[in-house]
Amino acid sequence: MIDSKGYRPNVGIILCNDDGRVFWAKRKGTNSWQFPQGGIDCNEEPEQAMYRELWEETGLRSEHVEVLGRTRYWLRYKLPERYIRKNSMPLCIGQKQIWFMLRLLSDESQVRFDCGQKQEFDNFKWVEYWYPLKDVVYFKRRVYKKAMDELGVLLAKDDGKINPESYLTGKSGFQ
Fold this sequence. Notes:
Radius of gyration: 16 Å
CATH topology: Nucleoside Triphosphate Pyrophosphohydrolase
Number of domains: 1
CATH architecture: Alpha-Beta Complex
Distance between the termini: 32 Å
Oligomer: single chain
Strand content: 25-35%
Order of helices and strands: EEEEHEEEEHHH
Largest sheet: 5 strands, mixed
Number of helices: 4
CATH class: Alpha Beta
């Protein structure tokens, strides 16, 4: 599915643990790291897509996580010219994403990378909240910043379940 402006609908997932650190996944066979994300199928709602992508990419199910929130609006990024498949129709120039903030409820030993048809990741680590902005591929940085700015405040809520220190004391390091 590509919308009339050339954007593919997608979901992004920021998964945090009780220490307020976030799940940072290594793409299989590369040294590229990112948050789990994936396309929304035809007739699929963003939350349905999020749970499907969560399962396919991390092996986690709805009972393993708590949804803390989602972005209010679509966040968009354009692909660099060299990544646009010009011979593909309809032409996809980037992605529009709804981002979700999840809290891991289960043990991290539940994580597996062999649940989808195509394995996306082969490793993960827990990182400080703002670390991904320095490590993700350059053309995703602005959309990551917008999602993390909007959703990070959920970690600072005074419910005692999540330590917000990583979010509150960290610097985004991105202008």
